[in-house]
Amino acid sequence: MKNSQKAPPDINRWLPARMVLVTVLLLACFGVVGWRLYQVQVKEHKMWLARTEAMLRTKRTLPAMRGPIRDRNGELLAHDKMLHQLWVHTHRMRDINDVTARLAILEKRTPKAIAREMEPEQIFTLYRQHVARLLACTAENTTKPSAGALAEMERVLCSEKPSEFAWLAPMSEDQAATWRTMLEQNRIVAVTMRPFVRRFYPSEDRLTHVLGYVNDRFADPETGELISQGELASHRQARRLQVGLEGIEAVFNKELTGSDGYQWIERDRKGRELTAFRGETVQPSHGHDVMLTIDLHLQDALEEVLEEANEFYRPKRIIAVLVEPKSGEVLAMASRPHIRRDAQNGVTPNLAVSTPYEPGSVFKVVTYAAAFDAKVASPNEMLNIDSSLRVFAKLNISDHCQSDVSVMQAFAQSSNRAAYLLAARLGEKRFLKSVRDFGFGAPTGIELTNESGGVVHKPGTPTWDGLTFSRMAYGHAMTVTPLQMCMAVAAIANGGNLMKPQIVKEIRDQKGDLLRQFEPQVVRRVCSDKTAKLMTQAMVGVVQSPKGTGARAAVDEIIVAGKTGTSQLYKTVGRGGVAEGHYCVSFAGFAPADNPSLCAIIVVDDPSESEETVSGGKLAAPIFAQLMDRCLRTMAIAYNGKTVTASDRKGEGQ
To answer: What is the DSSP pairing of strand 317-324 with strand 329-336?
Structure first.
């Protein structure tokens, strides 16, 4: 029997086809991988590089300092200090990969073991407890923190805030170094140190209205646009800015504000900085130096006198301004109540430039100067000021002078009727022109915030009536600011030139190079030199003549020229009208009268004194005398035993 048997299959028959198929598949795979590599390495190179840099490369802000403010002698009045603050990054505190890696370091285990044995919430909780303990120990400088500190640290780390926030009080460089060492040694994630600058005022409660203050604002680091408090939480990064809100800080905010720098840094996978790979660095550009005309020696003297008077008389307001009459430079300026910088409250406006008041008889300086300059009166001319005269009919002008007096005597004794007689000789048009020439009715243009121009009524308007002209002649029915009145008196002191008040001398950059200088500026000539000398003589008579109203303004061995002022206040509620028993008193003058180096005004609004003692001569004049005496002695001590003018001191301390 023949055996039938199948032939074995030819296994090599399909081998070439299989090899081709495998080869094609391998080529296809390599092609896909190659194509993807091409996309990643060539077409998408910039995108992936940016992502990598975002993970390992950080832009560190180098904060700029706000420019300092100095007095005329270079003394610091305001400056920045570098401080540091602890920040919590809540978005990183909830990053499971970051937290697991850091917890593994703290626990001395592998991240895989941590992730395998614990739920995510357990990992977060345990990490927060570790970090809280380290932070509490550092805060209390101990190895075993108190329960309260530990609980507070855990509460902050559990915050639900969506981004990041500052935490703990600002620290000095030494304190920050301790915290930074602890954070680096323990490789803590989500808690970092950041530098920032804060404004300091060495003069404490001095010059609060002149300097003003700053407030922190936040801005987008890319666009520079300010970020509101409501939007702040949604920004991963925000640039802290100090913005001036009042005074010099506000007016020169642009010049004082610097420009932050930056530095690119790279970190390894464990978050450690690779110092060898530090990138581009742009140094910060600090703000400019602003030098004021203020003399801190004189400012201290003025503030002391003002504080003593404020405590003794307890007025609603008290204001003082001290200027150098020849240049118009403001040497000192203060008022009470003032700004409390720490709480950023109190009376914010600078009362010396923003609060108009009725000047009263001090304003007769303008009336008499205009009359002398127009030659409608002479110093020794006798004036009949009897109230029964027809010229005074229906005007009801009160006056404590009753007999005939000379023009000089009328000024020294502050006769209201005499002032009106001289104004009437000028006529409304010439009188009002002189008023405006002396700078009233318009702001002076000083570099301070919220300046008022006062109120000077015009004929033909609803506020002008049959009594307005007569009242204006002796400083009523109009309002001025203390600075305006002081500059008008300074025009008499310097020979007839109304100067623009200046409070800034110069601005320099951070290298010390001069950028801008403020020179004395004559606004206009308001009277002749002869008239100014006559007015000086008349103002000396106010202090030295037997019946002068300003006898209490006298200073030993110094000839003082000045004028008193008293005006009644008006009701602020109800139907209005005069507030009985409430007055605003003032004294303005200069010394030494023969060569004036200082001109000042004192305004005391509604002092808590009996009506018998409330007048410019009885209350404001003694304060003026005390101020002038202290300031002149201060100048003599500070400047080598010589009483010198601000012009003589030009250039010192620069």
So the answer is: antiparallel
Q: Does the pTM of the predicted model rise above 0.85?
A: no
Phi, psi of 521 (to 5 degrees): -130, 120
Cis amide bond preceding 337, omega within 30: yes
Secondary structure (DSSP) of 473-521: HTT-SSBB-HHHHHHHHHHHHTTSEEEPPB-EEEEE-TT--EEEE----
**Dihedral sign of CA atoms 201, 483, 640, 637 in order:** negative
Distance between terminal CA atoms of the chain? 133
Segment 631-642, tens digit of pLDDT:
999 888 765 544
Task: Determine the 3-state secondary structure of 262 from DSSP.
Answer: strand
The gap from C-alpha 583 to its chain's centroid, in whole angstroms, comes to: 32
Amino acid at 249: E
Report whether 214 contacts 80 (CB < 8 A).
no
What's the CA gap between 433 and 435, in Å, rounded? Answer: 5
**H-only helix segments in 43-159:** 45-56, 90-93, 96-107, 111-117, 120-140, 147-157
How do strand 497-499 and strand 191-200 relate by DSSP bridges? unpaired
The secondary structure element, H or E, covering residue 383 is: strand 382-383
pLDDT tens digits, residue range 507-523? Answer: 999 888 999 999 999 99
